[in-house]
């Protein structure tokens, strides 16, 4: 075994994408074992390596970790992206939960019936611009720092950048009313490890298309 974290998931974004982002931001190389068929998933279940019979699953430090939040928390703490004390960690958690809610809406959009997509897309844009992005814009304005918590790159910043880029795929000018978030996007996108992840050919996955939706439906019986 190489010692690199090994990620078990489909060859698409889903719940694993934030894990890819965080490892990449931390400068950690990782390997991926793609689940391409229903049989691949069943083998993992039969082998007893999925605690709750679900993926994502990440092999790291001798553990077979499941549950997205647990995996992300571990990586954030291991690579010093989780604040300096309990209060900073609480702020990071709050910000991350907010971006997770927004990204969840975007993530499930391609899986929704065609006749509801337009309505749900409008809801995503409305929530992003009235509920979520104003919080981060205000945070950056209030403390005047480059990052959300402790003026140091944290999991909260990585997650927010991922959410911004996902939201821009829904509406390219979605940040038009948020100048500080525009500047934040520029700064964080140019952090060397993140910049590398944003380049073509990286392990970052493309937006979910119809072909990938069909594959996921088949593997997971949905």
UniProtKB/TrEMBL annotation:
GO aspect biological process, one term? xenobiotic metabolic process
**According to the UniProt entry, what is the EC number of this protein?**
2.5.1.18
**Which Gene3D superfamilies does the record cross-reference, listed alphabetically?**
1.20.1050.10, Glutaredoxin
For molecular function, the Gene Ontology terms on record are: glutathione transferase activity
**What EC class does the entry list?**
transferase
Segments forming domain GST C-terminal: 85-208
Mind listing the UniProt keywords for this protein, alphabetically? Transferase
Q: Which SUPFAM superfamilies match?
A: GST C-terminal domain-like, Thioredoxin-like
- Locate the GST N-terminal domain: which residues? 3-83
Protein family: Belongs to the GST superfamily. Alpha family.
Matching PANTHER family, A to Z? Answer: GLUTATHIONE S-TRANSFERASE, GLUTATHIONE S-TRANSFERASE A1
Q: What is this protein called?
A: glutathione transferase
Species this chain originates from: Halcyon senegalensis
């Amino acid at each position: 075994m190489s010692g690199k974290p090994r990620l078990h998931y489909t060859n698409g974004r889903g719940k694993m994408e934030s894990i890819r982002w965080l490892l990449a931001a931390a400068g950690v190389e990782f390997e991926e074992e793609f689940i391409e068929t229903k049989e691949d998933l069943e083998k993992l279940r039969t082998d007893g390596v999925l605690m709750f019979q679900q993926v994502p699953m990440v092999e790291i430090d001798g553990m077979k970790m499941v549950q997205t939040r647990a995996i992300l928390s571990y990586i954030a703490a291991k690579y010093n992206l989780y604040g300096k004390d309990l209060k900073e960690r609480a702020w990071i958690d709050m910000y991350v939960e907010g971006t997770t809610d927004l990204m969840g809406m975007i993530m499930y959009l391609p899986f929704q019936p065609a006749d509801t997509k337009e309505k749900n897309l409008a809801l995503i844009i409305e929530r992003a611009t009235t509920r979520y992005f104003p919080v981060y814009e205000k945070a950056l304005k209030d403390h005047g720092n480059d990052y959300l918590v402790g003026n140091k790159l944290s999991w909260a910043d990585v997650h927010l950048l991922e959410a911004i880029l996902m939201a821009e795929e829904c509406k390219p000018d979605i940040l038009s009313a948020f100048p500080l978030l525009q500047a934040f996007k520029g700064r964080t996108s140019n952090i060397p490890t993140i910049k590398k992840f944003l380049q073509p050919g990286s392990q970052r996955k493309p937006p979910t298309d119809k072909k990938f939706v069909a594959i996921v439906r088949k593997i997971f019986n949905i």
